[in-house]
Amino acid sequence: AQAQLRQAQKMEAVGQLTGGIAHDFNNMLAVVVGGIELAQRFLSGTPEKAERHLNNALDGANRAADLTRRLLTFARSEPARPEMTVVDDCITGFAELVERTIGDRIALTLDLGAPGLACWLDRRQFENALLNLAVNARDAMEGHGALTIRTLVDETEDTAALAVQVIDTGCGMSAEVLERVFDPFYTTKPAGQGTGLGMSQVFAFCRQSDGEVQIHSTEGEGTSVAMMLPVAQPEQAIASQDDPDEKAVHH
Ligand code: ADP
How far is 163 from 153, CA to CA, in rounded Å? Predict the structure, then answer.
């Protein structure tokens, strides 16, 4: 059943991609075909014009190849390997890499309010998601800024979620960006700087962990992205002790 669910999630992600990809890919193909057709016309008379059109065609083909490469990397993502993870400890252990990634101009503050609480999640994917959020926060802040990683428990009547908030003092998101932020390949960054996959990976990770993503953002003030993750139930902790190799508890 787990494999089936994974497959369904993968198919859903690929389905979401298809529309946008097909459109972009078609545009690139049009450049290739148009370039070759024009080049054919100039082949005999003005070879330098033919060469220019062939170079355009080559450029389009290279961009199409790059797009499919990125698509394949995304679609072939590794299956999740969930384990009991004490989230605050995991963040503490990962903070140095986050700090190095965001650089000196941004001050990192950890405000961890869920000591000892564990979630059932793929640790590597969690760290990846955290890093994606930190990089986005960094890129949203010009000059100096503050990045806060905060955890807290968000309890309702019958569920407990561990909220992992990544808060920046950056540019914030417009309504249009907010609406499209989880779309694979959606980016507002200059070509070559953003892949547009960071937030869709965060989204996929939270879905896979039975959680969700919440965003609060004000243009010109900043953004807070929260990964809401279910707190592991005691049964899961017991199950992981039965099978220590597969699902070790990490402190
Ligand atoms: P990428 O970072 O490669 O552009 P993402 O999927 O991570 O791809 O993000 C998509 C877009 O969402 C970004 O290009 C940016 O416009 C917007 N965004 C994401 N995080 C933030 C943030 N913390 N503040 C402002 N805008 C953001």
Answer: 6
